[in-house]
Amino acid sequence: MMLEVATLTVRPGHEAAFEQAFEKAQRLLPGQAGYLSHELRRAVGREPLYLLLIEWRAVDDRTLGFGQSPSHARWHELLQAHLAEPPQPAFYRAVSPGPATDGEAAMAGKVRNAGD
Fold this sequence. Notes:
The chain is α+β, with helices and mostly antiparallel strands and 116 residues long. It has helices at residues 15-25, 59-65, 70-79, 102-114; strands at 2-9, 35-42, 49-56, 90-93. It has a 4-stranded antiparallel sheet with strand order 2-3-1-4.
């Protein structure tokens, strides 16, 4: 699995319009080859900064698949007017899974117990 991380700097005053446009744009991701999940986070105290996280099975699923698709052109059409600068995405692979949080451990226990 690969994690695409992109910092998005939104034009001042465009935050609400950007979030509305993202609501439409995100519908283009499910169904793309290799797409697994995504999340958009808004910076606290550093507006108008957002972090976009998209999980792909492989980098090629993003670059050669989605990146060259009509859906990607539509993605840019919806979001580009609200961005102060082009995003610079980077791809990351897991090195270490890290420990589970208390909430994750508790949830895993509930799931195991539900199946007993």
